[in-house]
């Protein structure tokens, strides 16, 4: 399995930020893992053009479940593929919170993404109150079952475990907590899609930094990371890519 270092720029970056993607390629021209940046949609085509022929892959941060139609402001999976995206992040907790996205909607989007030839990066994770209530595995199990469409394979699905309370906070779960959730995800995914689950990449996300990446990547069933703030600067993201390459 080739591991995946993915950066989620969220709603950050104008054209000037393309220089950071260029610097990342220069710093990590040939990583031993897959390397992905997901810029805002406004930068997708330009970044894909810049990255053509390099090791950097480009992803989007959301798509509509329909291929086209009267959906003002939305973007479809075929449009993202046409702009040069190979991946799309779906069901991020910020979209679940800001836009009320449900598991069923995430599954429909993932199905559309896969049909368009994109790799769906399906995000899930518990809130702090859910963890405090001892409901972490129940919440994550339900999100997984509801958000992963039938027909998912290791070639068209990536799962990102992102505890909501660890996103942008500088707080991370303990190594035992990450390992517990990832082992649970592997087992539940096997129930859902069978033996194919063994090679689906399971990413950890939430306050991954150059200083903690190596210890997280050493954990069983952690096949990469989905990185927010530390993916915005090549000087931060390149060492994370290097850590994953060495894991
Ligand atoms: P941070 O790395 O900024 O905590 O964000 C994680 C995240 O939400 C990635 O999708």
State the gist of this model.
This protein is α/β, with parallel strands linked by helices and 247 residues long. The chain has ten helices and eight strands. α1 (18-27) packs parallel to α2 (41-51) and α7 (136-147) packs parallel to α8.
What are the SSEs and their pairings?
Elements: E1 4-8, H1 18-27, E2 34-38, H2 41-51, E3 56-60, H3 77-82, E4 87-90, H4 93-99, H5 103-115, E5 119-124, H6 128-132, H7 136-147, E6 157-161, H8 175-193, E7 201-205, H9 213-217, E8 224-227, H10 234-246
Parallel strand pairs: 1-2, 1-8, 2-3, 3-4, 4-5, 5-6, 6-7, 7-8
Bound molecules: 1,3-dihydroxyacetonephosphate.
Structure write-up:
The protein has an 8-stranded parallel β-barrel, surrounded by 6 helices. The protein contains 10 helices and 8 strands. It is of the alpha/beta class. Bound molecules: 1,3-dihydroxyacetonephosphate. 1,3-dihydroxyacetonephosphate (13P) is lined by residues 8, 92, 162, 167-168, 205-208, 226-230.
């Amino acid at each position: 399995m080739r591991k995946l270092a993915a950066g989620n720029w969220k709603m950050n970056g104008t054209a000037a930020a393309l220089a950071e993607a260029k610097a990342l390629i220069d710093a990590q021209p040939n990583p031993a893992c897959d390397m992905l940046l997901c810029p805002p949609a406004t930068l997708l085509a330009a970044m894909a053009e810049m990255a053509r022929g390099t090791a950097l892959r480009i992803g989007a941060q959301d798509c509509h479940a329909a291929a086209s139609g009267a959906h003002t402001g939305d973007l479809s999976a075929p449009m993202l593929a046409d702009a040069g995206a190979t991946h799309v992040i779906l069901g991020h907790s910020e979209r679940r919170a800001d836009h009320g996205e449900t598991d069923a909607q995430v599954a429909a989007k993932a199905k559309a993404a896969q049909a368009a030839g994109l790799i769906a990066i399906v995000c899930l994770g518990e809130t702090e109150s859910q963890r405090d209530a001892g409901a972490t595995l129940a919440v994550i199990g339900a999100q997984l079952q509801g958000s992963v469409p039938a027909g998912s394979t290791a070639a068209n699905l990536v799962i990102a475990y992102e505890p909501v309370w660890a996103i942008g906070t500088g707080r991370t779960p303990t190594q035992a907590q990450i390992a517990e959730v990832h082992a649970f995800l592997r087992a539940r995914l096997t129930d859902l899609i069978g033996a194919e689950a063994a090679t689906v990449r399971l990413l950890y996300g939430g306050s991954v930094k150059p200083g903690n990446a190596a210890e997280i990547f050493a954990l069983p069933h952690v096949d990469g990371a989905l990185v927010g703030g530390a993916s915005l600067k090549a000087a931060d993201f390149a060492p994370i890519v290097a850590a994953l390459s060495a894991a």
